[in-house]
Design goal:
The complex is a heterodimer of chains A (401) and B (426). Chain A has 401 residues and is mostly helical. In chain A, 76% of the residues lie in helices and 0% in strands. The chains are: A mainly alpha (401), B mainly alpha (426).
């Protein structure tokens, strides 16, 4: 019963609080965290085990299906946007650019983390390798939420903005695929049975195959006449099933629902009916997810951790301004991007948070708590500074123009 | 049908021990929830194709997938998923309150009063009478070595109860609206409260008879009055809050209503109030004292389907099939007897209040379903009367299992006959 109370209270407080703040017309960078939903994360933290203990571990355990649903929902929504008919409208070199971006991060952040984390966090060689890989994948993720608002305020709907938004949206795809591969090479220590290589492959195959099967099933269900309530029910049930498959197989709960989203969006012709539903359900779903993630998080801070986080953030900014921005000319666009374009990729938002939680839930190693702290603190910091930096980059461009 | 077979087939393979051991599959509550949501809904839809209520399909799906048959859901899963009960009950009650228009309702006060009174008198009286008619030796051989009168008094009290949540759900599903729909719904809700009061009094009486405690505890009446008053007051406060929100803020109404539903259930639980009554009054206030009733109903209906499906499927999964298998003959006799007494009570009440002929003939069919409240009372009896509480609970579980499956079917028959199905336009 405490679970219900905690849950109702959290939604109400978070919702009412956000209402008054986001109604302001001029959005400051501080208030941006309401847009990205990160304030709910802090609220969950305040009410979790480390705070007021309203949401303790027993409550969290009871509400675990909702946590998995939230993670799965993010995966589904992301996957659903990757519709081939939409993607082919963009030049192939844009997709290649996003892949190149991913590779740069994988290598640069991966190496940096491997060499810095080992001495700083005292991890063993194997742990350090996996940890670095997870951090690199995390830092390659991007979210367009903040960019959307800023571009809308400053640029309107010009072509470069549209392309920048597209690139920032699709780039996370590689990180998510990387997550699938990461699962393949590193199984959680909580798994009881010892696995040789081929059953590992089988688990990844099942984690990919079952969502594909369910996507066909979803398509079959939505072929006949259905109303909005039914569609919501099907969607909820299938995301629950996919997230449940992930929980059962101990793979990250973002992955199977993303596959469901990708396959279904490419099968169906009813996207226009699903998009409004996804938009309407997005807010309640994210509010619940962030509050639960906040409650799950047990933050700790040490100077070593601060150094690691600062180093990673600084590296991301340097890579974005120094490398990614310089690669833009290779896109050979008719309307050039602005020089500080790379900073558009700075925020990881919802994707970063969910990725961190997925790895935390699934990893089950002692280092997963460290990863959670590095991940969430970095993501929060990046989301906090990105409005300033993106605005600065755009403003600089305008000044130069 | 292919969809259902696909789901069940997949689940059988997934839960097959060999597969689980080989792949190291861990039990997942999230997976179980996804399965039961989809399976129950599809089975409900299939049942609707055959003219049966969807709710029966949800309940049957719960029974099939529950811990007593296919075991897709374990007992622990069922317990964990009970967290949705509060949300579902609050939403159901808000919906019901939002459907009640005082203008229509006040014309039926006399009928409601007579139906509640005569059903209660005849059912409890009938069962008490049975205590004297059944030979003692036969009763003791069948049930256990104790006096039949307290046993039958409690049985009669519990037999009077109807499940308002099931009634509301069937009415919502069939989009019924009209005089007779209002009458059935209001009677079920009022009777729910009367039964709770009678249960408290009967329990005190029975405990004094069998020497668990001496004398009737009149403080119970005071407690019940407090519960009634508190629930009404809280309902008015929540209803007014909803009106203010809809008037001045009117944004993200879905989140707000979901939060209110969670909240009201939890507050009622903590304060010992009646959750169903609180939300019913809140919905009633919004419908009758503001122009937002339709908006409220539409918003709830948009999100209620998954919650209701899970709620009824889990209530089906909770039905104790072992208890039913053990005492199905006796349970069936009680179900038939209860049905007969319901008919007499409804017929008598309808005749005295001058209600329509259809209520006299078929009104009883609207009061067959039984669920949460009856189960809750059986659990209290098991705890409070150790002498025969366990046997009593087992029998009641079997009776509930039958009534909860057939109840929605009978209610839908009645609504079909009343020609009020599909009359609600939004």
């Amino acid at each position: 019963m405490k679970a219900l109370f905690a849950f109702g209270l959290l939604i109400l407080v978070a919702f009412l609080g956000s209402r008054f703040l986001v109604r302001r017309k001029k959005i400051s960078s501080v208030v941006f965290i309401f847009h990205t939903g990160l304030i709910y994360l802090l609220l969950g933290l305040a009410l979790g085990e480390k705070g007021l203990k309203v949401i303790d571990s027993a409550v969290l355990n009871q509400l675990s299906p909702l946590l998995f649903l939230g993670l799965g929902w993010v995966g589904f929504v992301f996957g659903f946007q990757l519709e081939k008919r939409y993607l082919v409208r963009f030049q192939r070199r844009l997709i290649s650019f996003s892949f190149l971006y991913f590779l740069i991060f994988l290598i640069a952040i991966g190496f940096l983390s491997y060499f810095c984390l080992k001495p700083l966090l005292g991890l063993g060689p194997n742990q350090s390798l996996l940890f670095s890989l997870a951090v690199a994948l995390l830092f390659s993720l991007t979210s367009p939420t903040i960019l959307d608002v800023i571009l809308y305020q400053t640029e309107g709907k010009e072509l470069p903005s549209y392309l920048a938004r597209f690139l920032v949206s699709v780039t996370s795809f590689w990180g998510m695929i990387g997550l699938g591969l990461f699962v393949f090479i590193s199984f959680s220590s909580t798994r009881q049975v010892s696995l040789i290589l081929w059953p590992r492959a089988m688990i990844v195959m099942l984690g990919t195959g079952i969502p594909i099967l369910l996507a066909y099933f979803f398509h079959h269900l939505t072929k006949r006449k259905f109303d909005e309530e039914e569609l919501l029910l099907f969607l909820l049930a299938l995301v629950f099933l996919c997230a449940g498959v992930a929980e059962s197989l101990n793979i990250p709960p973002l992955y199977p629902p993303m596959i469901l989203g990708i396959v279904y969006s490419n099968l169906t012709r009813k996207q226009e009916r699903l998009y409004p539903l996804l938009l309407n359900s997005e807010k309640p779903m994210f509010v619940v997810l962030f509050i639960l993630v906040g409650a799950l998080w047990q933050p700790f801070l040490s100077w070593k951790l601060v150094v690691v986080i600062c180093l990673l953030i600084l590296s991301k900014i340097l890579i974005l301004t120094g490398v990614v921005s310089r690669l833009v000319p290779f896109l050979r666009l008719s309307i050039p991007f602005f020089p500080g374009f790379g900073l558009c990729f700075l925020s990881s938002g919802v994707m970063g948070i969910t990725f961190t939680v997925c790895v935390y839930l699934w990893w089950g190693r002692p280092s997963s708590q460290v990863f959670m702290n590095v991940g969430l603190l970095s993501m929060l910091s990046l989301d906090f500074i990105s409005p300033w930096l993106i605005r600065w980059a755009i403003f600089k461009r305008k000044k130069e123009a | 049908m292919i969809e259902l077979l696909f789901l069940v087939g997949t689940m059988i393979i997934w839960r097959w021990g060999v597969v689980q051991d080989f792949l190291g599959i861990q039990p997942s509550l999230t997976f179980s929830l996804g399965f039961i949501l989809l399976f129950a809904y599809l089975l409900g839809r299939k049942m609707a194709d055959y003219g049966l209520p969807q709710i029966t399909g949800f309940i049957v799906a719960g029974i099939i997938g529950g811990p007593y048959l296919f075991r897709f859901l374990s007992l622990a899963d069922v317990q964990e998923l009970r967290i949705f009960d509060g949300l579902a009950l609050s939403l159901i009650a808000l919906l019901a309150g939002g459907e009640m228009q005082w203008g229509r309702l006040k014309k039926q006060v006399s009928s409601i009063f007579h139906l509640v009174l005569w059903q209660t008198v005849i059912i409890i009286g009938g069962f008490v009478l049975l205590a004297f008619l059944v030979p003692l030796g036969y009763f003791q051989r069948l049930v256990g070595p104790f006096s039949p009168l307290p046993f039958f008094l409690m049985l009669g009290t519990l037999a009077t109860a109807t499940s308002p949540s099931t009634t509301i759900a069937v009415i919502t599903e069939t989009r019924s609206q009209g005089k007779l729909t209002d009458l059935i719904l209001s009677t079920a809700v009022v009777k729910d409260f009367v039964v709770i009061i009678l249960f408290a009094l009967s329990l005190s009486l029975v405990k004094s008879w069998i020497g668990e405690e001496g004398g009737i505890d009149w403080r119970v009446a005071l407690e019940i009055l407090k519960e009634l008053g508190g629930s009404l007051l809280l309902g008015v406060i929540i209803g007014s809050g909803l009106i203010l929100y809809l008037k001045f803020i009117h944004r993200e109404v879905t989140i707000f209503i979901l939060s209110i539903a969670f909240f009201s259930f939890e507050i009622s639980y903590s304060l010992g109030f009646h959750p169903l009554l609180i939300c019913l009054v809140a919905g009633f206030i919004v419908e009758n004292y503001s122009p937002y009733g339709t908006h409220l109903i539409r918003t709830i209906e948009r999100v209620a389907l998954p919650v209701l499906v899970v709620f009824f499927a889990i209530s089906g999964a909770s039905l104790d099939m072992f208890a039913l298998a053990k005492s199905w003959v006796l349970a069936l006799v009680i179900v038939l007897l209860r049905g007969g007494l319901k008919f007499l009570g409804t017929w008598g009440g309808a005749k005295l209040s001058g209600a329509e002929g259809l209520v006299k003939q078929w009104g009883w069919a609207g009061f067959i379903s039984q669920a949460g409240v009856t189960l809750g009372m059986a659990v209290i009896i098991e705890r409070e009367i150790p002498l025969w509480g366990a046997q009593f609970k087992a029998l009641i579980l079997a009776v509930i299992a039958i009534n909860q499956v057939i109840g929605p079917i009978f209610l839908q028959r009645f609504l079909v006959k009343s020609k009020e199905i599909g009359m609600k336009k939004l």
